[in-house]
Write a structure and sequence with these properties.
single chain; mainly beta; 24-stranded antiparallel barrel; ten-stranded mixed beta sheet; 2 helices; disordered N terminus
Length: 737
Amino acid sequence: MNTYRFILIVTILCTGIETITSQPPADAESIPALEGEIQIDGRVDETVWSTVQPLPLTMHLPIFGGDMTESTEIRVTYDEEYLYVGAVCSDSDPAKIQSPTFQRDAWDSNMDQVTLLLDPYNDNENMLVFSVTASGSRIDAVIKHDAQGDDVVNLSWNSYWDARCTVDDRGWQVEIQIPFSSLRFQERNGRVEMGMTVFRYLARKREMDIYPSIPPDWGFWSFAKASQAQTVSFAGIRNKRPWYVSPYTLAGLGHHHMRNENDVVEKIPDRKIQAGLDVQHAFSDNLNADFTVNTDFAQVEADNQVVNLSRYSLFFPEKRRFFLERASIFDFHTDLNNNMFYSRRIGIRDGEMIPLWGGARLVGRFNKWDVGFLNMQSKGTGDFASENFGVVRLRKNVFNQGSYVGGMMTSRIGMDGQNNFVYGVDGIINLFKQDYLQVNLSQSWDTGDTTNAGLYARSRIYLMWEKRTVKGFGYKFSYSSVGENYKPGLGFEQRYNFSQFGDRVFYSWFAPEGSSLRQTTITMNGSISLSNSTRDLETSTIGLESRWEWKRGSVLAVTLEHLEDDVPELFRLSDDFIILPAQYSNTSMGIRYTTLPIGLLRAGTSMRIGTFYGGKLFTWNVSPNVSLSKYFQLSADYEHNTIAFPDREKPFRSHVARLNMVASLNVKFSMSGFVQYNSLQHISTLNFRLRYNPADGNDLYLVYNEVLNNGPLPDVPNSPLSDSRTIMVKYVHTFRL
């Protein structure tokens, strides 16, 4: 009954709304077809390149429309198989060209680069990124939602393409070759139209020269907005739909420790030999499918160690590439990190990996609908029964390019009879100019809920109105309500049984042209949360932030915040420190500063002081990042917390340290290391990975993971030094059929 109701509601919403306004299509520029052959060697010296006119560039940063400081020629052409980009980047001081790494997908503002962005469907929604740095390293990514909102970039999307670059005493050059088989597009009357943006970025000058002429009016990601791209057309190209078949094999050994029935910790050896298969195929111009059998994530980096100083659940980002690729269609987010679908519910439970039999994913467009389907099956292991996880997503543009309505349904079906279903409808409506209205309504049904709770208690409501701007007066007003019995089995919610309203207003302005300052923003935020059961006040917050950004890249922010929190039940900071139920008033001041890059060194630091649940808080964080050469990069992060309570002799203290190292011989061979220390958990973790990537889709990994106990654990007197260890070899080879 509920499923049919969900489908009916979504169908009515998505088919019953006609387009009210539309933007006229931009005039398409014809990309010249290639009249010869190009050898991808990083030298734009073939005669055929001279027959292609360079694109007219405009300075995007630091001063829009200013005089470009270096000569740049970027040309784009194509044949039946490939799209080509050739760029000649002259430099008056080639010794200062910044190429700090060979690492794939290391995309930041500290590297010289040439970037092509494509909107293959020309729908002003998503952009595919193909970027090449002066070291030859490649970055491919997806920028979603017309580069609006938070978390718009997905760097885990990988495609099949090639690029080469060369550096000499006049600057550097790059050639890019992208197979049309790696793109999905629509052909109409023998022609294909896409959105296209290209730019050159000079890192030491913080200069971006771009085509077409896009002003930085939408903030940092203005250059990546699909709606501002130039419409270009191609003739005589066809969608090709190869099969990409990627079998893998792995072998590993190690150990872990467990307590036996006599409460004695014993060492248990682990041995693993496994094989599996991933398959990718486009069944039509608009529908892409992925299949996976015996899915494995052995090469995935460990989660960051963190300290939780709140009474709410911590959010950990997804790091598994299978779930990150094409993830934007399954987005059903509300406030903060809350989402109806949180992919880490699949194959991870209580921090432990659960093996997966496999599954399938279908993503694309059908009759103007964006569609997404995902189904995965986990294996039964230990105390956890096998489960089936399902997601169905529908979404359709309405009114204008900035608006959509849609719906989603998730299912979690356990072989032990525990079932959970969640269904919802959502929409974002571009009301006028920069004003947007977002609506999310969802409801859950769970076999574990025996309270016969009503619809409201099993529902989640989110309403938000915001003005999206980076200049002048802006605002965001929101209302959120989560029922006591709302259980998103495949989602993430920080807290339940409350209603909250509030958010923020801000004013931002740009400095005069001659100033070293770029932008200043003042923000006031606040919210009030009430218990749904008693309607009593649970929490209220009010804060003020001033933020300054300089043209060279440094950022300074100062914040003041006051929190009233009625804690209904105790929560733990550690085994020795608890916060008792009471009403608390916390006031704090914080400061954050990110330095401008000094050579190849960058750093960020933050500090917060104030009252904290009856105590006095001091928090400090520092995050240096240095590129010693393009062969070796080093980054670190250290966080210290001290809370002094008047009724305790010793204060609460915590330390978390992380060290990340990347060493590369070239763009094909690399080694990464990730070392962490957590004083509260009494552990240190080691993660090292060797990777050999001779071609896209072919990878050899050697992985070493270890968890070390920082001395004897409080309740385990005979705890070993090494709690667990894994050494594993994995090889993946992709066949194009």
